[in-house]
């Protein structure tokens, strides 16, 4: 082997791999001396030196230092992370205390923490603890605290932690985060340990990404180190500066959400442990301290707890709580329904509004006190269209703030959808009574007539009695009070103070009647007319009856245009004996939420069905087929609309190609998703729709195949029956005229005339035109 072949970097790496470090060093130093700036020479030389230093550091420290100086003399032309790290790892090994350091580390790992700590403290006191070993010392301190955490006093822990904090080890690092973690864990059971002050000294800027992320292990989720720190601060009621945390950590959302989550579980646990007074104090502290940091998931979750816990005797608390919570903090999610398995619950926002409504309705709060609630209702009504219950509550609150006219207008539309609900008439009467006492009485009479269950009439009867007495109708008022008292006594229910006050005004009167039924019937009409006065009448026909799944009869009404609704005979006395084709005058309200018409009033009309039919939809159609056996004919309006008319529906017997005028109305076919055409009236017409009928003339080409013979005029097919009618029985050419009509799918000839043969051709012979078999 030549000298050139032996003195190569490849040879150096080969010798190093075979542990022949002396020979490797000889070649590497020679190569480095000749070319100190060659990249591969530098690396080969460095790796040999590293291996030699590792060995000599345990035998001859001075010799190892000499080799390390050679290593430091290399001015690397490229950076190598692995090489650099190995060089850094050598530095502690060249320390005179290294053997003691190794001993201490081994003792610590073996659980002999006090002995390990003593060794490091001796090294430090002797002045031999270099910065290179600060990281090792830090781990010794960490393991010591972890081992003796349960027995360490706060002062003892502080001493060790400050010993660590004075080290110059790398930060941020795993060790630095572990020190914070052990401090947080210790503080969770030692409230007097000021974890916030320690965190400030530890320095928030040294938090690593993993310290602020949730952790996962074996499929389980664990809170981040930062979240645990904040939880301990909150639970220990340790004074802290939230603005400092936001400034230093630079993640306001994470900090606020961690704090809010901690309060959520604190409130939840207090309720679970039945520490109710403590729970109220925590809720109050939270809402007054952390509501100004904007909307968030956990802020809403805490409102859910408040809404759930502030009930019955504590419901009043919710008013101030949500006011401080700040209604501007509702998130989009808070307006969505809550899905819980197979159940769907109201959104948090709506549940909160309902609770506020119940509180305000029974309180004496004035207009200024509930202005913010009115604003919230206005926002909710924009966000949740067609919510009749929300609108109803809003109208009642407007009335409470003396915006009576606005409340009346709103409730006038509400009652159209709730006209069969006694409570709705009761509420409306309370709104309008300061404007029109007698109209209010009428509404209460209406409420009583539509509520068959006396259990729900108590408040209605008292309010009616109060108005009746106030208007001088003492006998009627006494009847209401008597019915109220008798039912309460029968049920064993408490009689209210309001009853006693009212009854004292008529206690000396003997009632001349046992009930007010006649009075109700005569009085309620004013309320009905008031509601219906601005609603136009619609004239409809009882078109059909059917029985639903429960076997109950239902009546279908239509105006033959765009109105159709279903009701039952109990809706009005006029429906009891109604029969098909009877005409009724009806007042309707369209319920947008449920996409249906609500019947407000329906009475028999003097109008005739023909008057209704004449206003129905009208179309011109062509008859394209007649089936005398089945006694029907088929008509076509266009490519989308066609139908069948049976002979028993009309006296008309048209011919194919006749145009007819039909009156009809459209409905959904129960057996399909298609639109059904219901014929009301049919008659012949002179009007012609050129899109359905054509006259064609020209050369008639007669052909034949296995199915018979046929012809064409231009591109229009002429069937065999029309050829036979014109005595054409052979393949030939002729001139002819044809009438063709559109049958909804294609053009079909139905009449052939003026046929003139242009040549005397062969008699009928079979030709193959099988491609026309399907025509």
Automatic annotation (TrEMBL):
It comes from Aliarcobacter cibarius. It comes from the Bacteria. Gene3D superfamilies: Tetratricopeptide repeat domain. Pfam families: DUF7017, S1CSD-TOTE-1. This is TOTE conflict systems S1/CSD-like domain-containing protein. Residues 617-676 form the TOTE conflict systems S1/CSD-like domain.
């Amino acid at each position: 082997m030549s000298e050139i072949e032996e003195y190569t970097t490849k040879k150096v790496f080969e010798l190093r791999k075979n542990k022949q470090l002396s020979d490797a060093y000889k070649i590497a130093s020679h190569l480095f001396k000749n070319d100190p700036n060659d990249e591969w020479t530098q690396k080969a030389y460095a790796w040999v030196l590293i291996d030699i230093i590792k060995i000599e550091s345990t035998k001859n420290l001075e010799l190892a230092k000499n080799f390390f100086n050679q290593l430091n003399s290399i001015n690397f032309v490229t950076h190598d992370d692995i090489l650099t790290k190995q060089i850094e790892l050598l530095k502690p090994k060249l320390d005179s205390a290294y053997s003691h350091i190794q001993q201490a580390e081994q003792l610590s790992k073996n659980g002999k923490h006090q002995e390990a700590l003593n060794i490091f403290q001796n090294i430090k006191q002797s002045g031999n603890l270099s910065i290179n070993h600060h990281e090792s010392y830090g781990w010794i301190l960490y393991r010591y605290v972890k081992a003796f955490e349960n027995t360490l006093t706060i002062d003892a822990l502080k001493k060790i932690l400050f010993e660590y904090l004075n080290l110059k080890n790398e930060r941020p690092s795993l060790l630095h985060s572990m020190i914070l973690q052990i401090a947080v864990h210790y503080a969770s059971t030692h409230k007097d340990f000021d974890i916030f002050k320690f965190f400030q000294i530890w320095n928030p800027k040294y938090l690593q990404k993993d310290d602020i992320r949730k952790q996962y292990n074996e499929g389980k989720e664990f809170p981040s180190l930062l979240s645990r720190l904040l939880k301990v601060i909150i639970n220990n009621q340790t004074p802290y500066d939230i603005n400092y945390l936001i400034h230093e950590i630079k993640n306001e959302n994470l900090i606020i959400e961690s704090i809010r989550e901690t309060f959520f579980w604190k409130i939840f646990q207090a309720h679970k442990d039945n520490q109710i007074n403590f729970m109220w104090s925590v809720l109050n502290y939270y809402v007054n301290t952390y509501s100004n940091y904007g909307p968030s998931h956990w802020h809403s979750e805490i409102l859910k707890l408040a809404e759930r816990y502030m009930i019955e005797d504590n419901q009043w608390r919710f008013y101030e709580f949500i006011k401080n919570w700040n209604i501007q903090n509702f998130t989009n999610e808070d307006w969505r329904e809550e899905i819980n398995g197979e159940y769907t619950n109201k959104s948090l926002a709506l549940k909160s509004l309902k609770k506020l409504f119940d509180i305000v309705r029974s309180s004496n709060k004035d207009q200024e006190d509930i202005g913010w609630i009115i604003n919230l209702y206005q926002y909710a009504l924009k966000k949740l269209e067609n919510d009749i219950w929300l609108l109803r509550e809003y109208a009642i609150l407007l009335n409470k703030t003396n915006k009576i006219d606005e409340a009346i207008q709103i409730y006038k539309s509400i009652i159209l959808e709730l006209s069969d609900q006694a409570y709705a008439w009761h509420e409306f009467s309370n709104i309008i009574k300061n404007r029109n006492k007698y109209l209010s009485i009428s509404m209460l009479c209406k409420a009583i007539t539509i509520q068959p269950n006396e259990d729900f009439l108590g408040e209605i009867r008292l309010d009616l009695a109060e108005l009746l007495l106030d208007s001088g109708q003492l006998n009627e008022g006494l009847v209401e009070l008597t019915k109220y008292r008798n039912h309460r006594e029968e049920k064993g229910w408490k009689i209210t103070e309001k009853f006693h006050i009212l009854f004292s005004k008529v206690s000396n009167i003997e009632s001349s009647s046992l009930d007010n039924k006649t009075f109700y019937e005569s009085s309620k009409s004013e309320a009905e007319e008031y509601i219906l006065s601005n609603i136009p009448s619609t004239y409809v026909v009882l078109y059909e009856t059917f029985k639903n799944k429960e076997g109950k009869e239902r009546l279908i009404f239509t105006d033959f245009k765009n109105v159709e609704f279903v009701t039952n005979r109990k809706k009005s006395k006029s429906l009891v004996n109604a029969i098909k084709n009877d005409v009724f005058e009806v007042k309707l309200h369209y319920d947008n939420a449920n996409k249906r018409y609500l019947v407000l009033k329906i009475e028999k009309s003097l109008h005739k069905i023909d008057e209704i039919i004449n206003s129905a939809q009208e179309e011109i159609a062509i008859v394209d087929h007649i089936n005398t056996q089945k006694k029907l004919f088929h008509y076509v309006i266009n490519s989308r609309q066609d139908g069948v008319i049976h002979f028993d529906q009309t006296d008309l017997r048209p011919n194919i190609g006749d145009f007819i005028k039909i009156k009809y109305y459209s409905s959904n076919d129960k057996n399909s998703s298609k639109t059904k055409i219901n014929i009301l009236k049919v008659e012949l017409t002179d009007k012609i729709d050129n899109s359905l009928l054509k006259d064609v003339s020209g050369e008639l080409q007669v052909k034949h195949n296995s199915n018979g013979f046929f012809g064409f005029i231009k591109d229009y097919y002429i069937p065999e029956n029309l050829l036979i009618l014109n005595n054409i029985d052979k393949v030939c050419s002729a001139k002819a005229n044809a009438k063709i009509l559109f049958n909804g799918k294609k053009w079909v000839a139905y009449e052939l005339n003026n046929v003139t043969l242009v040549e005397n051709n062969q008699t009928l012979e079979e030709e193959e035109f099988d491609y026309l078999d399907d025509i």
